[in-house]
Write a structure and sequence with these properties.
5 helices; Arc Repressor Mutant, subunit A; 2 domains; mainly alpha
Length: 124
């Protein structure tokens, strides 16, 4: 049996995590996931809700399905999609809070810069 470096498994885990986040790393895929947080949807329902063309929605659902982020089940002539793991909803909610904090920090910094500009102009 070959010896493996103890860090090899860690590297595999990091690669798995990176692939998962890469699957999420597209604006349309995020929008689709946010729609699926609300519940099971067909391609047509997602397309209508997001105002996107069917090929775009299908392509991005294919990426999410290939990376086990969503699952589809046949329902008559259509396929209904849902989150594979409901914890994805929690992940999106946490990300939204992080982004809100970052934007709040940016707004505060912008206000401080604007205040400095006003003070500098008033001294002239």
């Amino acid at each position: 049996m070959p010896l493996t470096h103890p860090g090899a498994r860690v590297g595999e885990l990091q690669t798995f995590k990176a692939a998962f986040f890469k699957a999420l790393a597209h604006p349309v895929r995020i929008r689709i996931l946010e729609e699926l947080v609300q519940g099971e949807r067909s391609v047509q329902e997602i397309q209508s809700a997001l105002g996107l063309d069917q090929p775009v929605v299908s392509q991005q659902l294919g990426v999410l399905r290939a990376n086990n982020v969503v699952v589809g089940r046949k329902a008559g002539v259509s396929v209904r999609y849902t989150l594979r793991d409901p914890l994805v909803a929690d992940l999106l909610a946490v990300a939204r809070r992080i982004f809100n904090n970052q934007l709040s920090d940016t707004r505060t910094l912008l206000r401080e810069l604007q205040k400095e500009d006003r003070q500098r102009r008033s001294r002239r």
